[in-house]
Every structure is written in C-alpha cells, then in structure tokens.
Amino acid sequence: MSSIKEVARLAGVSVGTVSNVLNRPEVVAPETLRRVREAIERLGYVRNGPARQLREGRSRTIGVVALDLANPFFIDVLRGVETAARRADVTVMVFNSNKDAQREAGLLETFEEQRPLGVLITPVNDEGEEERLRRLVSRGIPVVRFDSSAGHSGGCSVAVDDVLGGRLAGRHLRERGHRRIAFAGGPFTVRQVRERRDGLAGVLGPGDTLTVIPLPDLTIATGRTVGREIVALPEAERPTAVFCANDLVAIGVLQEMTLRGLRVPADLAILGYDDIDFAAAAAVPLSSVRQPREQLGHTAATLLLDEAYGAGTHEHRQVIFQPELIARASTTAPVRAC
What we know:
Layout: H1 4-11, H2 15-23, H3 30-43, H4 49-56, E1 61-66, H5 72-87, E2 91-96, H6 101-114, E3 118-121, H7 130-138, E4 143-146, E5 156-160, H8 162-175, E6 180-185, H9 191-201, E7 209-214, H10 220-232, E8 241-244, H11 247-259, E9 269-274, H12 277-281, E10 287-290, H13 293-309, E11 318-321, E12 324-326, H14 329-332
Parallel strand pairs: 1-2, 1-3, 3-4, 4-5, 5-11, 6-7, 6-8, 8-9, 9-10
Antiparallel strand pairs: 10-12
Helix pairs in contact: 1-2, 1-3, 5-13, 6-7, 8-9, 10-11
C-alpha cells in the first residue's frame, strides 16, 4: 500500500500539499492539483481513514437509525442525508430499527461505544428513548431527530406537520362529496399516525362518519387486509373513501379492490401519504399527501454537521415542513352516492 509520502515524492510536492489536495482542494493551484491527483491514481493511494480520525480526534461517520427501510419514504430521506454528508466528506452508516424498540435501544448502545460524529434517528416511540438519547448528547455525540419532534431532551429536529397533512386529506375527500370516511393506520404509539388521524377527524362535520381501522404495521399486506374489512361491511355502512397512513397501505387497498372487481374511486376513493414514486405509478394513480422527503433528510444532516463542527456556535432548531396534497385519479373521478 502506497503512502502519502510516496504520493508527494512522485508529484514533486510536500506532504502538506497532498493533504490539502485531499481535504481542501480549493486552496491548491490547478496545475499542482492535477499532478497530485495523477500521482494518487498512478500509485493507487487510498487514505487511511482510522489514522485520519485518530489524528483529528473524532470520527468522520454519522449514524442513521431509520424507522422502516422497507418503506421507500426512508430511502428518499437517506438520499438527502447522503448528499449533505458527501459534501462534508463524511461517511453515513445506516441502520434499520424496523419499528422495534429493543433493536433501537441496542443500536443506540452501540453508538455510545463507537462515538460517531453524530446520530440521526426517527425514534420508534418519541418518549421511549429520551434517556438514552440524552446520554449520547452528554458524551458529545449530537442527535438530530428526523421525521420526528424534538422531544424532552431538546436538540434539533426536522419533521412534517402531520396534523396539517390529515386536514388536507380530509378537506379533499369532503370536497369530493365523501361523508363516510375510513382512516387506516397504526400502531397509534407512532406520533405520525396519531397526528394524521387527528388532522382528518378535526375537519369532519357533524353528519360525517369516521371509521378507524387500526393496523399493527404500515405495509402493502396490511393494506390488503383493510380492503377486505371495508368490503365486508354492509353497503349502507361502508366508507366511500379511505385515508391511509402511508402509500404502502394505500397500494394494498388498491390491490384488494382490483382483485374483487371494485372500482376506484367510484366504489372506494383511496388517499395515501408520503407520495412515494409508486403512488403515481399505480394502476390507478394514487392521490397522496406529499412530504419533501429528500429535503427533510438533507436538512437533518446539515443541522447535525453544523452542531458537530459548530464549536459552541450552533443553535438548536426545530424545522417543520408543510405537506402538500397531490390529487390523482384514485380520488378525483365521480363517486357513488352516499
């Protein structure tokens, strides 16, 4: 393995110049930059990451604990995280709590031992890991919650106004003539699910009916279960529209309606949440409440890096993004009479 000294010797520059090329290329003259990079390529030089971290006295890795990597929403968020990290020359380690509080606790314990530059997390339960998150902060490891509120321990957070998202969904469905509406989501220990349901309930009128269908998880499979439950109801009681807590559930409901030969939206209007790419690509394009997914991840990572490198100048921020309703065919065609 070649060394930085060999690169400097071949390029005819000092070791410090090679270091600048690797870490601050903007301060190096173009011709020198070219020679050093050619030497690096010719020798196959790869910087020693652990040695660099030892010299700097800190890790150059941030840890991410996502709630559910089976949901494309979190993949889009991670794209934003990775963009911000790459610009700062920082590595991203991604872990999946899979909505399991015990698994999440184990991951946070590992972070305490490994001392990353910082941690981005969507907690399984906003209250459940407060003490462990405070311990990370007390050890000098910044924590930023994404798609989550700040919690009692303070710090930065980046979230979407999910109550507003529920209101947007309810208003849209009522404007389309729906008065019997179902909400499908769960578990209700998850703040986002509760707030989306509450936002919907808050805009319904005295003559409206809200049917809540609790779910153990937000997947396509549970969405198909929702479809079967709705179809099993007496037609006079059956909702004419369902607002799903995410797009995966909405896709599952759509699949079940299609298998049973029912029309969307004529027999059942379907509205999802997140506006993942699959929503627009569904057989009947799904209406959805859009979250700025990549922007959410990029903002969370930027706040984390600012705190990690802020040297006491960082100020905590709680960033709340506004959702947007995207209307498509699953709710916008004429509906059957209630």
